[in-house]
Amino acid sequence: MAEADADPAPTMPLPEGYEGHDEERWAPEPPKSRSRTAFERDRARLIHSSALRRLGAKSQILVAGTDDFARTRLTHTLEVAQIGRQVGAMLGCDPDVVDCACLAHDLGHPPFGHNGERALASIAAGIGGFEGNAQTLRLLTRLEPKVMFPGGRSAGVNLTRASLDAAVKYPWTLAEASRHPKGERSTKFCVYPDDEDVFRWLRRGAPGTGTPMECQVMDLSDDIAYSVHDVEDAIATGAFRPLAMRDPHVMDAIVGDAVRWYGRRWDPDRLLDALVGLTRGGMFPEHFDGSRRSLAQLKNITSSLIGRFAVSVERATRERYGRGPLTRYAASVVIPDDTAYEIVALKGIAVHFVMAPRERQPLHEEELRCVEDLVDVLMRDSPRPSDALEPVFLDDWNEATNDDERLRVAVDQVASLTDGSAMSLHAILC
Q1: Per-residue pLDDT tens for 331-365?
Q2: pTM
Q3: Among 113, 132, 297, 411, which has the highest number of CB atoms less than 10 A from its own CB?
Q4: 306 burial type by CB count under 10 A (0-12 exposed, 13-18 middle, 19+ buried)
Q5: Mean pLDDT throughout 266-271?
Q6: Are 97 and 214 in contact (CB under 8 A)?
């Protein structure tokens, strides 16, 4: 495909630290009014996307719909975006570029969270794999309907290069992933083989496999929200009782789970020190009874932790890079070791009390079977499209030339489902 030209002209003066290159879009679009910046338009496109709405019925730490307090993928995403705007503003990033990255970061997650992701990764192993972050890029540039190329191909929501680049957390393919591991629990990547054309376009001018400041702020904000809010949910739902932290065996088990899930690069002694420090610093309530008073105390602790992490990162990053806007590839986010260990220690609590036990429940196997069965149903009559294939995927199926390409279409449809719609469709078809 011939590469698209840049937008004819910026809609508004560029924010400090950004260039015309950053405002370019993959597919050409007619000139827009000057009422909003290009980055504000990016954010609006994500806010109005169906992919974002679906996150409201996808699981975060607990199964979506099973608890009125606990977070869904959508509420988690909104909280990540709020933290991201705060940290981005501290560092001089454009808040809308950071917001776009945060709003987009979980769009590609399939039903049943990481459980569904593992099932689809196994199914798609021979066609370039499956990964939630790679599915996000595919949604933004192909699957979410908004802008079409003149020849009829979808350009997805057609974000600017800066916003799209900020959403690509692991800028490599599955084949390249072994050289760029973030952790030992799973292989992360952001691009499938048939999405490499847009990947090459958005990465033009990027240094190697580095990520821009806005992406790093998003990644940090995700870690902060994930670690703090999942512990808050675990306390509020009774899965984690902070008094358990008085037991040294429990502390050791939390550290062990954190290392198993997040990699051996995390020193167990330093993780234990982080847990002890958080406990002694009053970062867990002594008692929680579900009352308004205890909920207020829990919320204030959560706010304190977020502020603690954000301020420590701002101070460390400014000490290295000085004042002024730190945008795109002009700098890197600096996370002090003590802050990084506190974040992983909190994530270890969620793993130990909620996530690891959930993997041992019968529901875990049912979810895996649901995903596998739905892909089988969609592929059963190939090359004829299944009656269960949604109309939005029919053109993709008809344009596919072999079963590998049709399998990618089936995976796209199953990945788009919410937890509830996947179970309902499985009940009907299987």
Answers
A1: 999 999 999 999 999 999 999 998 877 666 667 78
A2: 0.89
A3: 411
A4: buried
A5: 96
A6: yes
Phi, psi of 157 (to 5 degrees): -85, -5
> What DSSP state is assigned to residue 105?
T
* Separation between Cα atoms, residue 382 and residue 403, nearest integer Å: 7
Task: Pick the closest to residue 173 from 107, 113, 109, 128 (CA basis).
Answer: 128
pLDDT reported for residue 4: 47
- Look at residue 107 and tell me whether its pLDDT is greater than 90: yes
What is d(CA 11, CA 235) in angstroms, rounded to the nearest whole number? 47
Distance of alpha carbon 117 from alpha carbon 303, whole angstroms = 31
Q: What is the DSSP letter of 361?
A: S
Q: What is the pLDDT of residue 110?
A: 94
Q: Is 344 exposed, middle or buried (0-12, 13-18, 19+ CB in 10 A)?
A: buried
State yes or no: pLDDT of 116 exceeds 70: yes
Helices (H), 263-336: 268-280, 292-321
Helix ranges, 25-166 (H): 38-47, 50-54, 73-91, 95-104, 113-123, 132-138, 161-166
- Give alpha helix (H) positions in 169-289: 196-202, 213-236, 248-262, 268-280
Tally of CA atoms within 13 A in the half-sphere of 193 that contains its CB:
10
Distance (Å, whole) CA 275 – CA 81:
27
What whole-number distance in Å separates Cα of residue 163 and Cα of residue 413? Answer: 25
Which residue spans of the chain are classified as CATH 1.10.3210.10?
37-202
Amino acid at 352: H
pLDDT at 6: 47
- Residues with Cβ within 8 Å of residue 324, at least 6 apart in sequence: 17, 92
